[in-house]
Each structure stands twice: as C-alpha cells, then as structure tokens.
Amino acid sequence: MKDRLYLYDTTLRDGAQTNGVDFTLSDKLAIAHMLAEIGIDYIEGGYPGANPLDTELFAQAHSIGATFTAFGMTRRPGRSAANDPGMAMLLDAHADAICFVAKTWDYHVRVALETTPEENLASIRDSVAAAKARDREVLVDCEHFFDGFKANPDFALACAETAWREGARWVVLCDTNGGTLPHEVERIVGEVVKRVPGAHVGIHAHNDTEQAVANSLAAVRAGARQIQGTLNGLGERCGNANLMSLIPTLKLKPAYADHLEIGVDDAALGRLTRVSRRLDEMLNRAPNRHAPYVGASAFVTKAGIHASAILKDPATYEHVAPEAVGNRRDLLVSDQGGRSNVLAELARIGLTVDKNDPRIGTLLDVVKERQAIGYAYESAPASFELLARRVFGTVPDYVEVLKFDVNVEHRINALNKRVTATVAVVKVQVGDGEPLISAAEGIGPVHALDLALRKDLGKYQEYIQGLELTDYRVRILDGGTGAVTRVLIESQDETGASWTTVGVSPNIIDASFQALMDSIVYKLVRSGAPA
C-alpha cells in the first residue's frame, strides 16, 4: 500500500511576498479554487491581522474544497494564549486549520524573542493547545529549523517534538534562508523522524541555492509526508519550492510514484500547464519559457538529430510525455535543425508533404539563409508557417503594399504643451480594385503603422476586425550605426488565439512592418479568407 503524501500551498502568503506581486481579494479566492481543483490538500490563505486584505479574507467562511489554513505566530513570550491579540485573530479566523510559525533556533529565541528556551517551548505548547481547543487542525512551522539543528540539535528537536506531543497534526521543518543542501536535509530529517513520526513531518524549502525542489524530495526520501510550496515557485527573495515541478515528479517518476500517492489525479496533472500560465496571466507576468514540465520550451528541440529520434520514439529524448502535464512538443525550425524538424513542423501546421519533395530542401535552405541574417523562426512560428506555405504555394496574394510613410513630428500643441505626434500613411492594392490609402495617428511609429495597415483592407476588412497587437519586442543584433534590428510581434484575435511573427532589417520601422504584415496575412490564412 502506498504512503499518502500531502501537498500544502503557500502561494497566497509566501507568493504575495514576491517582488511585483500583489493579490486582490478576488485573486486570492480565484487562485484558492484553482489550487483545490487540481487536488492540493492544504491552501494557506494568509496571515489574519497582518494586513487588511488577509483580515478581510478570513472574516467569513469560504467553501474552497481543500483545508483552508490561516498562518500566524505562536503566543508572545510573557503572555497567555488568551491574552494575545495575534492569537485571538488566528483563533477567530474562518479557517479549517491554523499554521503557527515558531522559533526553533536557540539563537533567535535569545536575540529576537529575548526569552528563554523553556518559555519558547511553553509558547509552542500553549498555542497548539488553544487551537486544538477550538477544534482546529494544527500545523507548526519550525522556522530556521535546519540552522537551529546545526547549532543546537537538542533544542531544535525539542521544539518539533513538543509541537507533535501537544497535538499538532504536522510539524513542518523550514529551511527559511534557503541555505541548506539536499544531503543535509536528508540527514537531519532522518534524525527528526526518529522522534516525530514521518507521517506528521513536513518540509518548507526556500530556493536561495536553487535547491528547494531537491531539498523537498530529499525530505520525502527521509520520511517526511508533507511538502509545502508555491505555484511557479513564487516567494520572497529567490522563491519557494515549485509545486509545478514537484507534482509531476511525484506523479510520474517511479522513485516516488511507486510508493507514494498524492491528491492530484491524472486529469488534474494534465491541467498543470494551464494553471501555471493562468497564474502568470493574473499577475501580468511573462511565463518562464524554460520552466520544467510547464514552460513553453520544456519540450522543444532545435537539433535535427534529436528531432529525428523524437519523431521515431518520443521517449528517447523526452523524460515524460508533454501531454501528461498539459504541455506540447515542438520541433523548432532553425539553423540547428534539419529535414526532420521541417517535416514535423509541416505536419503540425497541416501541410501534407512527401518526405522526398525537393521543396523541403528549398525551404530548409531559405530558413538557414534568413536565420543567418537575424530571423528567429523558433520564436516566431507564425512567420515560419507563412514562409513554408509560400514555398509550397498555398498563401494567396491577399494584399500588396505599394508604399508606406511614417512621420514623427515634435511640436507645441493647442494647450501649449510639447508633444510628439506620429502619423503613418499606407497605400495598398487589394485584388484588381483601386489602390486604398489609409492614414492613422498613433502614440509611436509602430502603433501608427499598425493602425493604418488595418484601417482599410477592402474585402478583407471583416476578417481582421478582432485582430490586435499584444506584445512588441525589439533586439539589436549588431552594434554600431549599421545595427540590424529584429522585431517580434505577438498578436491575438477574437477567438483568444495568439501567434508571433518576426521582421528583420537595419531599419526598425521596416522590421516592424514585416512583422505586422505577417501577422495580418496569418490572420487571413487562419480565417480562411478567399483569394
């Protein structure tokens, strides 16, 4: 029979300490429900009394579908549990469980709390007892436990054992400054489980040495049966243990999956990538493309020899199936790739081509030539698709741009304020009709050009009504006055689909124009616009 391993999420508290992250009340509730839906056992909502938002969150009950937990300090030294305002806030909070943070390093007891080891142990006992008396499940986070153990193992162990014997469901060992290494964690947790049963021991790891996931797994190997972490590894400084890496490892790697089970089922596992990216969307952050399991590049390869192997047997170069975590495989077309990459990408975009078609070699040569001058098709798959379709003759000549002009003027406006105005004029030919001329004013050259291009495309106008530019990135490829500029443009349409296009030129406006035109043509192709 497999041991049950419990997952405890601290995104709503530890994650809120990340630089640039600010949750609203509705954000916290939405994230809590999202966590419960994938099978997280405990969700730490925050610290009632520490700030108005968390106080409001715990002012009323919430039906989350997981053990909703309030976090706070044990009673203060020299006070009783009944005469401590912080304890009162915790005990009155609408929460299923209470997680107390307690000092377990004797140095902190002396210097930070200015009290005695005996009073610290009494504070742990009294706090656990008070919460148990209110019918709450109790957890005790043993702050700086590993540093405390190294300095005074007897005292650190006494703190952990006191919490457990008083009735705490979980005694959580915290690597608070993130400086402990996996071999140390495994050894120290091994000592703890001799005094506190492993079924009551948890691990809370920070990522300051990039070891938080490894330390969490080391603790599990030593017998701990709860892991605390956050979505996408959010947290103060370098972050916390990343549940988006831990969950698939626990589910898919035999070293853990053969003898442990978690509350995340296979269907929920398949939603991990979506959950990870949904959180980033809520926080208006760019997802980490290189994140294990859920990153956009996690199952991407550029090398042709690897692509050949992946096409024959994906397991050769993929440690897990990308679909298992809701991700996808990509074989990028680049100057590092070969015919296998091209064939795989053609199949993905729906172009059926005989593997001996000589145009495959032509396409590969064109890709390599263009990438040599700065194009990056691995970052702009929509532009690659258009290039491929043009080589194979499947892109209609929708629109011909006869000329465009962009004018930037610095002047004094009617309010006597100095402003910069940008106007773009575009002349296009659509079919056999008369040329169409459009002008638009924008907040910058690219904005003005984008508006003018999409202002009037004649019979194709209806197909691009929902098109909008959502991101614009520029990279200077060569220094000096003759620098080559690469522009990547991300676009989105009314269906929610998004794509990226690329343009390269010594002139940033020309590079932007190329990417903008590719975006428009790609939208017409997607929409099935007739020639």
TrEMBL record:
Q: Key word Transferase present in the record?
A: yes
Q: Which UniProt keywords apply?
A: Amino-acid biosynthesis, Branched-chain amino acid biosynthesis, Isoleucine biosynthesis, Transferase
Q: Name one GO biological process term.
A: isoleucine biosynthetic process
Catalytic activity, reaction form: pyruvate + acetyl-CoA + H2O = (3R)-citramalate + CoA + H(+)
**Which pathway or pathways does this protein act in?**
Amino-acid biosynthesis; L-isoleucine biosynthesis; 2-oxobutanoate from pyruvate: step 1/3
Its EC number is: 2.3.3.21
Q: Name one GO molecular function term.
A: (R)-citramalate synthase activity
Q: Does the keyword NADP apply?
A: no
Gene3D superfamilies with a match to the protein in the record: 1.10.238.260, 3.30.160.270, Aldolase class I
NCBIfam families of this UniProt entry? citramal_synth (TIGR00977)
List the PANTHER family hit by this protein, alphabetically: (R)-CITRAMALATE SYNTHASE (PTHR43538:SF1), ALPHA-IPM SYNTHASE/HOMOCITRATE SYNTHASE (PTHR43538)
* Family, per entry: Belongs to the alpha-IPM synthase/homocitrate synthase family.
What is the designated name of this protein? Answer: Citramalate synthase
Query: What species was this sequence derived from?
Result: Rhodoplanes serenus
Underlying gene? cimA
